[in-house]
Amino acid sequence: MARHLMAAAILLMAAAINGAQAEDYPAHTVTIIVPFAAGGPADITARIVADIFNRHLGQKFVVENIGGAGGTIGALRAARAAPDGYTLLSGHLGTNALASAFYPDLGYDPQKDFAAVGLSAEYPELLVVRKDFPANNLNEFVAYARANAAKLNVGHAGLGSVSYIGCLLLNSAIGIKPTLVPFTGTAPVLNAMLGGQIDYECDPVLGTLSQVQAGGVKALAVAAKKRSPMLPDVPTSYEQGFPEFDCAPFYGVFAPSGTPQPVIDRLAEALDKGLGEEQVQKRLSDLGAELIEPGRRGPKPLADLITSESARLLPILKAAAEK
Ligand code: MLT
Questions:
Q1: Which CATH number fits domain 16-122+250-322: 3.40.50.12280, 3.30.70.100, 3.40.50.300, 3.40.190.150?
Q2: Sequential pLDDT tens for the chain (323 residues)
Q3: Whose CA is nearest to atom 3 of ligand 1?
Q4: CA triplet 283, 309, 175: central angle to 5 degrees?
Q5: 3.40.190.10, 3.40.50.720, 3.40.1190.20, 1.20.1440.230: which CATH number matches 125-222?
């Protein structure tokens, strides 16, 4: 009996300490793990989010890039971090919804081991080829790729990354199996493409936007139903007859599950405020993002999206991988 009382008292004390800590949150620097290389879509998005938190929560939020294995190494690190709000993850469709389809021993459960904080942005993917690739639209690309598949190198950010998933959908629609070359993120993929070692990649629009605009690489298709306002001359995959190439990954903020609810609420509130700011919306729009409207902000819409995107995409990916 005495032992039970003692245990109950300890639990109550722990809850009180947690509550007090949540009230002071954030009392010191917070780390946002980006599970991909610096300079790519995940990193750029996370730095916008870190700036929102810095300004609205009055503390430093620093980005730490932990790349590898399609983002799952960094995501695992975040899943295992202390659930105190001082380690967060800037994850995406791959790391926080679909990764378990690619890794039987993932080490974390994308849904159970994370608490959703909120969506940051969504971006349609682009099919981008090296500057001197002998195709200027999707149909020319398909004809060339079918005739030369064995010679082609596709860059991606690791098994299960969104660049991997986008090109899996494209390659299976075309019926080709080129050589897949993994990197720790799509920023290094782009560098390799500029150097001529990679023939093509499928990357959220912000990853290659400035190089597409500068003519360093060519964009042949937007993997969505509508064109990107940032690249109005690039036709969609639908317009060019390949609707299977449809991929617009979400990016969002997550905390290890068990993080106190008041901490999640503070973060979600700050993110909501930031996403409503004009300068943040302009920055995201200039990067080609679909903005997250007020009704889609916060933990629940992100958690719901993970459930619905997993249900929608897992059978499609399975069929694509089996082709
Ligand atoms: C990146 O930031 O490098 C990409 O978003 C990673 C990916 O393709 O999933």
A1: 3.40.190.150
A2: 445 445 444 444 445 445 546 789 999 999 999 999 999 999 999 999 999 999 999 999 999 999 999 999 999 999 999 999 999 999 999 999 999 999 999 999 999 999 999 999 999 999 999 999 999 999 999 999 999 999 999 999 999 999 999 999 999 999 999 999 999 999 999 999 999 999 999 999 999 999 999 999 999 999 999 999 999 999 999 999 999 999 999 999 999 999 999 999 999 999 999 999 999 999 999 999 999 999 999 999 999 999 999 999 999 988 887 77
A3: 185
A4: 95
A5: 3.40.190.10
Residue whose CA lies nearest to ligand 1 atom number 8: 163
Q: Full-prediction pTM beyond 0.90?
A: yes
**170 vs 158: CA distance, rounded Å:** 16
Do 255 and 30 form a contact (C-beta atoms < 8 A)? no
Do the domains 125-222 and 16-122+250-322 match in fold?
Answer: yes
208 lines ligand 1 (CB under 6 A): no
Q: Is any ligand 1 atom within 6 A of the Cβ of residue 157?
A: yes
Residues β-bridged to residue 203: 126
Q: Which of 202, 207, 209 lies closest to 162, judged by CA? A: 202
Residue with tokens 């064995």: 150
C-beta of 160 in contact with ligand 1 (< 6 A): no
185 in contact with ligand 1, CB cutoff 6 A: yes
Q: Are 82 and 152 spatial neighbours (Cβ–Cβ below 8 Å)?
A: no
Is the CB of residue 250 below 6 angstroms from any atom belonging to ligand 1? no
Q: How far apart are the first and last CA of the chain?
A: 62
Closest CA to 153 of 185, 184, 129: 129
Q: Which residues contact 225 (CB under 8 A, 6 or more apart)?
A: 236, 238, 246
| Domain chopping of the chain, boundaries | 16-122+250-322, 125-222
